[in-house]
Design a protein that fits this description.
Length: 230
């Protein structure tokens, strides 16, 4: 395994997101430099919108998001990868190897370099046997692993996961989380699975578009559970 790169410094400065006049996130100012960051909150709390700001899928109505002092959307896309809840929203091509090569086209790599990146990622996670498979024939767990591989071949510094285990059964969930724990990249994970986040460095709790708790996992998760009693 390669040595872990230095975590990026991700900044949110006075970020506001509104849609059709409705506030989704309000006045968010943050500096994130931890290696493992969790994001929790009820449905509709703004946490998924927050996650999509990291790599420019969503853009602020006002304010700015930056990485290592650079605030351009191009810089965010270059350094931050995103794994969707549903891998079908991420997998584009009918053959696994073609899908993994898709994002690399803009990097102007040689065929040999492209093949080497794909082989390295597939071999690392025991997925080499899927290289020539049709993507529509993959199981849910295999699709999620291929979606992760599609991000990893781009060699991002940061990877954001939006509810990555929601559609997985217990066996595939455990496999995916084992793969996640091995990653040397800085990761941000939006999840309702509170146990998953217990070993993280920092957890952010959103409610009604605002950040209401921010700190180590134990107290932030405890406060979230207390607020969520029905």
């Amino acid at each position: 395994m390669m040595p872990a790169p230095k975590p990026a410094v991700i900044t949110f400065r006075d970020v506001v997101v509104e849609k059709n006049g409705t506030p989704i996130l309000a006045g968010l100012t943050l500096r994130l430099s931890e290696r493992r960051i969790g994001v929790i909150g009820r449905n509709g709390s703004g946490k998924s919108t927050f996650a999509r700001l990291f790599n420019g899928i969503e853009t602020p109505s006002s304010g700015e998001v930056g990485i290592d002092g650079k605030t351009g959307r191009k810089d965010l896309r270059r350094h931050v990868g995103f794994v969707f809840q549903n891998p079908d929203n991420q997998i584009v091509y009918p053959i696994v190897s073609e899908d993994l090569a898709f994002g690399l086209k803009n990097l102007k790599l040689t065929q040999q370099e492209t093949a080497a990146r794909i082989d390295t990622v597939l071999t690392r996670f025991g997925l080499a046997h899927l290289r020539d498979r049709f993507t529509h024939q993959l199981s849910g767990g295999e699709k999620q692993m291929i979606a992760l591989a599609g991000v990893l071949v781009m060699q991002p510094r940061v990877i954001v996961f939006d509810e990555p285990t929601t559609l997985l059964d217990l066996c595939n969930k455990r496999r995916f989380m084992a793969a996640l724990q091995e990653l040397e990249q800085q990761i941000v994970v939006v999840s309702h699975d509170l146990d998953l986040l217990q070993g993280f460095d920092r957890v952010l709790h959103f409610e009604n578009g605002t950040l209401c708790e921010d700190g180590p996992p134990a107290p932030v998760i405890a406060a979230y559970v207390a607020r969520s009693q029905c």
